Amino acid sequence: MKEKFNIEGMTCAACQAHVDKAVRKVEGVKNVSVNLLTNSMVVDFEDNLDVNKINEAVDKAGYKSYLANKQKEEKIDDNKELKGLIKRLIYSSVLLVPLFYIGMAYMNGWPLGDLAKNPLLVGIIMMFLSLVIMIINKAFFISGFKSSIHLSFNMDTLVALGSGVAFIYSFILYLIMLHDANMMNMDAVMRLSMNISFETAGMVPTLITIGKTLEAYSKGKTTNALKALLKLKPKKATIIKDDQEIEVDANAVNVGDIFIVKPGEAIPVDGVVISGYGAVDEQALTGESLPVDKGDGDNVFSATINQNGVLKCKALKKLEDTTFSQIIKMVEDANATKAKISKIADKVAGVFVPVVIGIALVTFTLWMILGGSFVEGLGNTTLLSYSIERAISLLVISCPCALGLATPVAIMVGSGKGARNGILFKSAEILEEADKVDYVLLDKTGTITKGKPEVTDIIEIDYDKEELLKLAISLENNSSHPLAKAISGYKDIDKYEVSEFVSLPGKGVAGVINKKRIYGMNLKSASELTSISNEYQALGDELSKKGKTPMYFIYDDKLIGIIAVADVIKEDSIEAIKEMKNVGVTPIMLTGDNKNTAAYIASLVGIDNYISDVLPDGKMSIVKELKKQGKVMMIGDGINDAVALSEANVGVAIGAGTDVAIDSAEIVLIKSSLMDAVRAIKISRYTLLNIKENLFWAFFYNLIMIPIAAGALSGIGLAKLKPWYGALAMSLSSVTVVLNALRINLFNPDKKRKKRAYKNVDMTNIKIEEEKSMKSLVIEVEGMMCMHCAKRVEDACKSVTGVEDAKVSLDDKNVTVTSNGEIDKEAVVKAIIEAGYEAK
């Protein structure tokens, strides 16, 4: 079982690591993925584990967790944290200006009036101002000390220690000053006043708050893609009940409800048009700007906009099950996962704060022991003051935040960039994996081609072309065969009346028009009815070699023409395959066609490597063999592609494909465009490059700045690095990481880039084997009404010997049965009937 939890109290990568560690220790937890950016975690645990045990583990670690509620949009759109930070920042800044000026003016001789002559009054004013600033920013101290109690140190621990030590040390010095003043030792008072650091105590939390505010704002920008999707989610629907229009919440629409959509309104749920006509803007779903005409029998999708006309529709899915809701879920799921590359940062973050505290103590000790002669040359500064200042600088300059944000912000922006381009990455891991692809296996039908037959050639033979078309369309209009539909749908013309129509399986169709018999047949059957010259027989053979199906039309015992039908190549397939080679991946086509046809199609689209005569069961064995040579991406759209998609390193489903294929894939192309597969690879590569840049900066910053803060470069004047300089640097480091991630939004995946050499493939070792693990059977089932019915049908199918799995689709009213071997169809049908349903 997987559940998403919201986490309260996480402020840095160390917090993330502590929560992760605490939850993993809970017995029954299989896997944990904690996300600092979204303050959430996804936990995979055993069904019998009480969720409260997970919450208790998080609580013991010093944080709060609770199951994410369904109103996710409210959580994401909530900018309460940002507003609170801005409020704190304003109040702190107003007080920091006089605190900073008084402190600097007193030490540097700036204009200060009579106040400059009274170090005790200067001290009490600075102490008061810094104390108020610390109270305003009490969240740092509460979180920091609370985490210390639980031994789960975090960034707030460093801030609280840095600011707190500066205040306590300055307060002690001030008490000594008061004692010296009572003893009339004003020289000692003046010398001690130069070592007071109240401005540091106030400056550190204020500057960290500046960084936190910028970080919160920038992080909000990284979720813009998800926010934009959520804003498009329909809120209201108008349903027809008792012949009346009733406005209801979109999530109240049930399967089977009738709803209407007026011009300008969003379609609330996925459905089918039962009456009316309209033009629907599907840009939110497909990215296409041109509206799509919708009429009787056409499917409509949630969150798309009806631009004109009134549509009356029947709901096919509830709001949470719609295609649009699944898109949102995929984007959210991708953001909740982690890339493998982040593991190093996670390990470092887990021990970062304790190590930094240890280094600070060592730094303080070394300066106290060895720094006497150096500090004597710094004027009024005492050895103790200087040593404390070095330790405080080191504490506040260290930045675990940058480590924690390096990966999730890039994943968030990268997955959002993909969603805006109609590409859905299901996880962070797959964003990373797509970068490494060597080979792309392309299923021909529905991937390279449209998957829908179209008329490609019309050859009239001593007959008028328009009349040939009218006769052929009139005849084929009576058949439901896909080839017949391609011909009958070729052109909208007035049709002849056809009598005595008959479908001849394996041959063609026949009928009578104007009292004359007409046939539409394949070459072999047509040759039995009339004499066909060698020229037209050769023409038919030539069309067949090109993957086309020629139909010979005979009217009144005379051959009047040939109409060829084929599954035509998609408009962008040739360009997509060319671009695949440019980005350094090798395209390989899979097809069930014979070798000659496969060679012709491959040559048309520019593919050098292809495998012909592939049965559905053989695809997985090809993927397995190819994986021995490199990383494999498989692109498909059908049920028979599901196992191969799962076996590939990266499975990509064409969005118009079956639910089974989409469920088996890690990347979904909503627009069914092959160019989007190339864009997915490019976005993946750019996102991974961005993550590497972020991680480099996070590690480089800490490796360089920690020694500087400790005083390693004292000899060249950096010994006087003030703690508040460190606080400012720390704030800017995490903001830099977030801003760098936002650059992904500017990335153009269609821009031509430097070509990469693509990998050669050894085709000799790739053998087609029938995989007995992939046997499937789709059975139509009548009488299923709900999920309870679906469960009964699935259980009935699974009870049959040899059946491994069964999945019901209530929308399509069928069940898909899979087995490791041959399926006993009669036994499965009998089991369904015995369960109380009709099966065929």
Show unreliable segments.
Answer: 70-78, 769-773
Mean pLDDT: 84
The biggest beta sheet is recorded as:
7 strands, mixed
The number of distinct helices, counting runs of at least 4 residues, comes to: 31
- Which structural class matches the secondary elements? alpha+beta
Q: Percent range for helical residues? A: 40-55%
Biggest sheet: strand arrangement: 14-26-25-24-15-22-23
Distance between the termini: 34 Å
Count of beta strands: 30
Radius of gyration: 36 Å
Shape: elongated
Strand content: 15-25%
Compact description:
With 840 residues, the chain is α+β, with helices and mostly antiparallel strands. The chain contains 31 helices and 30 strands.
Overview of the structural elements:
By secondary structure, the protein is α+β, with helices and mostly antiparallel strands. Helix content is 49%, strand content 20%. The protein has a 7-stranded mixed sheet with strand order 14-26-25-24-15-22-23, sandwiched between helices. It is elongated and about 130 Å long. About 2% of the residues have low confidence.
What is this structure's SSE topology?
Blueprint: E1 2-8, H1 13-24, E2 29-35, E3 40-45, H2 51-60, E4 64-67, H3 72-77, H4 80-108, H5 119-136, H6 138-149, H7 155-182, H8 186-193, H9 198-222, H10 224-232, E5 236-241, E6 244-249, E7 258-261, E8 271-276, E9 278-281, H11 283-286, E10 292-294, E11 299-300, E12 305-308, E13 311-315, H12 323-336, H13 343-370, H14 372-376, H15 383-397, H16 400-420, E14 423-425, H17 428-433, E15 439-443, H18 444-448, E16 449-460, H19 465-476, H20 482-488, E17 499-504, E18 508-513, E19 516-521, H21 523-527, H22 534-545, E20 549-555, E21 558-569, H23 573-582, E22 586-590, H24 595-605, E23 609-611, H25 619-627, E24 632-636, H26 642-647, E25 650-654, H27 659-664, E26 667-669, H28 675-710, H29 723-742, E27 775-782, H30 787-798, E28 803-809, E29 814-819, H31 825-834, E30 838-839
Parallel strand pairs: 15-22, 15-24, 22-23, 24-25, 25-26
Antiparallel strand pairs: 1-3, 1-4, 2-3, 5-6, 5-7, 7-13, 8-11, 8-13, 9-10, 9-12, 14-26, 16-21, 17-18, 18-19, 19-20, 20-21, 27-29, 27-30, 28-29
